[in-house]
Automatic annotation (TrEMBL):
Alphabetical list of HAMAP family matching this protein: LeuB_type1 (MF_01033)
Protein name (record): 3-isopropylmalate dehydrogenase
PANTHER family: 3-ISOPROPYLMALATE DEHYDROGENASE (PTHR42979:SF1)
Source species of the chain: Pelolinea submarina
Function: Catalyzes the oxidation of 3-carboxy-2-hydroxy-4-methylpentanoate (3-isopropylmalate) to 3-carboxy-4-methyl-2-oxopentanoate. The product decarboxylates to 4-methyl-2 oxopentanoate.
Any one GO cellular component localisation term in the record: cytosol
Catalytic activity: (2R,3S)-3-isopropylmalate + NAD(+) = 4-methyl-2-oxopentanoate + CO2 + NADH
Record: residues binding Mg(2+): 223, 247, 251
Sequence similarity: Belongs to the isocitrate and isopropylmalate dehydrogenases family. LeuB type 1 subfamily.
Superkingdom, taxonomy of origin: Bacteria
GO biological process, one term: L-leucine biosynthetic process
Keywords, comma-separated and alphabetical: Amino-acid biosynthesis, Branched-chain amino acid biosynthesis, Cytoplasm, Leucine biosynthesis, Magnesium, Manganese, Metal-binding, NAD, Oxidoreductase
Residues binding substrate, per UniProt: 96, 106, 134, 223
Enzyme kind, highest EC tier: oxidoreductase
Length: 354
């Protein structure tokens, strides 16, 4: 079994965590008889510096032709001028659109031994095991018209929140299919009391729910969902929502696990390569220090193995090795420990066969 993987280390700590995660990914794949071929490309700020664009046509073509793509992070203070015409985040948005990955899956599971690292009370965290499905290629981030203009001497800005029923249907259906394999509950998050797009979202969600009579559907306003995430997160199973709401809620959910460095994600489409990345940013303040938590990226490689390469045993090896390392008391700096990125990765690799 030969697979082609594109690596997009990106900016900040991206190259560090991707480099460590590749070590784990390679070892787990080889244990299951798979051979991985890696092709490294630029994206984000480093691509702007070299090519003047955050995503070249060549990089996008390589990603579209690959079996899977592993991304680190993009952005940093160097490219953070709000007046800049080219920004690192444009590369990420263009990559998602170009790869036709419309659903972002973010598992949120609290390890019992990391409960003390979370700011929430321990009793709020017992049994937390959810997955957030975020629509990825529509909504405010992509809607047109978009821009800024001066009207009668006053500057104004416009962003358009637009969805069509098929964009909603495909991501909601993916959420229901995931729920079939879990606790059979879907929470759909919208703002239907205010937004017309959310009223369409709720209508289409009800139609999809009719296809899955064994799955419980709960509709929830986004402000209520934000409260539920900290008040009673264990009651949530599969949560599905639109692009911007999902962006915000998943960052909120990351504190449940004790560190944003712990959470992986998978961006999937109807077919083709998937895009896998940790949910944290480029963390320029610690870049180059070798202390970034690699576990979010390592767990992202487990999702890569499961969803794109169809190697569930290799994926399970990684997840079990990370769980065991945490249970054995091993911690990076963000979790109150002293291990470097490489040392934590070494410990995970040592447990791959256990």
């Amino acid at each position: 079994m030969d697979f082609n993987i594109v690596l997009l280390p990106g900016d900040g700590i991206g190259p560090e965590v991707v480099g460590q995660a590749v070590r784990v990914l390679t070892a787990a794949a080889q244990a299951e008889g798979a051979n991985l071929n890696f092709n490294e490309q630029l994206i984000g700020g480093c691509s702007i510096d070299k090519f003047g664009t955050a995503l070249t046509d060549e990089t996008l073509a390589a990603c579209q032709a690959a079996d899977a793509v592993l991304l680190g992070a993009v952005g940093g203070p160097k490219w953070d001028d709000p007046q800049a015409k080219v920004r690192p985040e444009q590369g990420l948005l263009g990559l998602r659109k170009g790869m036709a990955v419309f659903a972002n899956l973010r598992p949120v599971r609290v390890h019992p031994d990391l409960i003390s690292a979370s700011p929430l009370k321990p009793e709020r965290l017992a049994g937390v095991d959810m997955i957030v499905v975020r629509e990825l290629t529509g909504g405010l981030y992509f809607g047109q018209p978009k821009g800024r203009e001066v009207v009668d001497g006053i500057e104004r800005a416009v962003d358009t929140l637009v969805y069509n029923e098929e964009e909603i249907r495909r991501v909601v259906r993916m959420a229901f299919k995931l729920a079939e394999q879990r606790r059979k509950k879907v929470t759909s998050v919208d703002k239907a009391n205010v937004l017309e797009s959310s009223r369409l979202w709720r209508k289409v969600t009800a139609e999809v729910a009719a296809e899955f009579p064994e799955i419980e559907l709960e509709n929830m306003l986004v402000d209520t969902a934000a409260m539920r995430l900290v008040a009673s997160p264990a009651n949530l199973d599969v949560l599905v929502t639109e692009n911007m709401f999902g962006d915000i809620l998943t960052d909120e959910a990351s504190v449940l696990t004790g560190s944003m460095g712990m959470l992986p994600s998978a961006s999937l489409g109807a077919d083709g390569a998937g895009l896998f990345e940790p949910i944290h940013g480029s963390a320029p303040d610690i870049a180059g220090k070798g202390i970034a938590n690699p576990l979010g990226t390592i767990l992202s490689t487990a999702l890569l193995l499961r969803y794109s390469l169809k190697l569930p045993k290799a994926a399970a090896r990684i997840e079990q090795a990370v769980d065991q390392a945490i249970s054995d008391g091993l911690r990076t700096v963000d979790l109150g420990g002293k291990l470097t990125s490489q040392q934590m990765t070494d410990e995970v690799i040592a447990r791959l066969g256990s």
